[in-house]
Design brief:
Layout lengths: L3 E9 L4 E5 L2 E16 L4 E15 H10 L5 E14 L5 E14 L56
Parallel strand pairs: 4-6
Antiparallel strand pairs: 1-3, 1-5, 2-3, 3-4, 5-6
């Protein structure tokens, strides 16, 4: 509940690595995000510091990433930010920023894309069950002595069940 949701715009820095795991498909790649600012002294746009994020995608998103994301493409990634610190023997402590992606898309302000809807996985076949009989008998249908042609018999009417 207290997660940090981020939306970053950057370029794909590494080829997506796709894996089939027991929990489902998973893909990861690095995203380079460079800040740009207007330099008043030079009157030009200047690149600032570049941040690298490891983007993780799971399930159908992972399969779609593997199918259409390539190095150098501009992407917009939204997801949960996770900052980790690792201490390895003989090395300094390192920090890494991961994004557990919820949505990934191409940045259409820098190019065009052609969208193809992914096919839905086939549902397992279900056993054929007979249709239930939803009609309920009317109270006058169950009366004894209610025969055809009997003057006391009521006229049957169709009843719609909704």
């Amino acid at each position: 509940m207290n997660e940090t949701i981020v939306c970053v715009v950057g370029n794909v820095a590494t080829r997506p690595a796709y894996r089939e795991l027991a929990a489902g498909p998973s893909a990861r790649f690095r995203l380079a995000v460079t800040a740009r600012y207007w330099d008043r002294e030079k009157s030009t746009w200047t690149d600032g510091h570049t941040n690298f994020f490891t983007v993780w995608a799971n399930r159908q998103l992972a399969a779609n990433v593997a199918a259409c994301v390539e190095v150098g493409q501009p992407l917009i990634v939204q997801g949960r930010l996770k900052v980790r610190t690792d201490l390895r023997e003989g090395q300094q402590q390192r920090a890494s920023a991961d994004i557990d992606a919820v949505a990934i898309g191409h940045d259409l302000s820098r190019g065009t894309a052609l969208f193809h809807r992914a096919g839905k996985p086939e549902a397992p076949p279900t056993a054929n069950r007979p249709e239930p009989d939803w009609e309920t008998p009317r109270p006058d249908d169950a009366q004894d002595g209610a025969r055809e042609g009997d003057p006391g018999q009521r006229k049957r009417q169709a009843v719609a069940v909704t």
